[in-house]
Write a structure and sequence with these properties.
Blueprint lengths: L13 H18 L1 E5 H20 L2 H10 L3 H14 L8 E8 L6 E7 L6 H30 L1 H40 L1
Antiparallel strand pairs: 1-3, 2-3
Helix pairs in contact: 1-2, 1-4, 2-3, 2-4
Length: 193
């Protein structure tokens, strides 16, 4: 038996609370952001994130579990196709709660809960794109170098010399640093005496 939530329920009873959370989640998936009270938003966050996790799995069993909670097939389809695809690289944290002040009528604290559909990090997206571009360029160079290598073996010798030259320069740059390192402990020993 699941442990009941602590504190007062959102509705009159547990069945009303389940229905309320299901309707809030359906509205969230349909509109991508909703305005509600802070309490309801905090209760909705884990519920909605669990449904998004099911949608990321994408199998029939997961779809049926979500359909058992949200009865609107259109919303479930959008969740499994659009939203799951948008957050496939994200490891949790699919929703964001932003407090917006109090409601005018009853002074209830209000919040906006929205889906986080942006890429995980702009830097990670750029790095992934650069990596794939570099891989494509390397594949193109290998494909272009294969016919050229048969025709002109001298070109490979020139390229090999060009590759070895930077390696030698790197070795010479590292050597002075290695020479300075033994001098530093000798200076410390003199200070210690």
């Amino acid at each position: 038996m699941p442990t009941p939530t602590k504190g007062p329920r959102l509705g009159g009873g547990p069945a009303h609370e389940r229905l309320m959370l299901a309707n809030l989640a359906a509205s969230l998936f349909e509109h991508k952001r909703i305005t509600t009270t802070v309490t309801k938003a905090k209760r909705l966050k884990p519920y909605a994130e669990r449904l998004v996790t099911f949608a990321k799995r994408g199998d029939l069993a997961s779809r049926r579990r979500v359909l058992g909670l949200i009865s609107n097939k259109g919303v479930v389809h959008e969740l499994f196709t659009d939203i799951a695809q948008a957050v496939e690289n994200r490891d949790g944290g699919y929703t964001r709660i932003t407090k917006i002040g109090n409601r005018k009528g009853d002074n209830a604290p209000m919040a906006v809960i929205e889906l986080v559909l942006e890429p995980v990090s702009a830097k990670q997206a750029v790095v992934a794109e650069a990596t794939s571009a570099a891989k494509r360029d390397a594949d193109k160079k290998e494909a272009a170098a294969a016919p050229v290598a048969e025709e002109a073996p001298e070109a490979e010798a020139v390229e090999a010399d060009a590759v070895e030259a930077p390696a030698e320069e790197a070795a010479t740059e590292e050597a002075p640093a290695a020479e300075e390192a033994p001098e530093a402990p000798a200076a410390e020993e003199k200070d210690a005496k």
